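Dig into my protein:

:::
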Amino acid sequence: MSVSILRRIATPKKALTGIAVAAATAGMALSAAPAHAASGASPSQAQAIAKKMIPDAAQYNAFSKIVQHESGWDIDATNPSSGAYGLVQALPGNKMATAGSDWKTNAQTQIKWGLDYMKSRYGSPVGAWNFWQANGWY
């Protein structure tokens, strides 16, 4: 075989190897990223779900302010120091299983649990927000 034929064969192999390495690297980068796409709702979807579940504007606004402060409407939010989880930062997060087994990935389940918690402890989301304003937590 001549050198020119070997170069023609080697060049496509190098290109294919480079593409394979790039694809593998991209795959590793994607698998290392947070799994937000696998979760049940984006922040705007979670807000829309909450609006449907909380028809009273004052109660929704209070709930929304708490959730914005606690998780930024990220259903996967996890507090690295306490382990609190989800939209309403339940501690421990698995408490929300009382509202549904899909508590890790379902915004509606997290909202339901959060509303029940706020009603039982503070009377309403407005009561929870008043407490949050005074204490920086609820």
Remarks:
- Residues 38-135 form one domain.
- Confidence is low (pLDDT under 50) at residues 2-38.
- The chain has two domains: 3-33, 38-135.
- The longest helix spans residues 3-32.
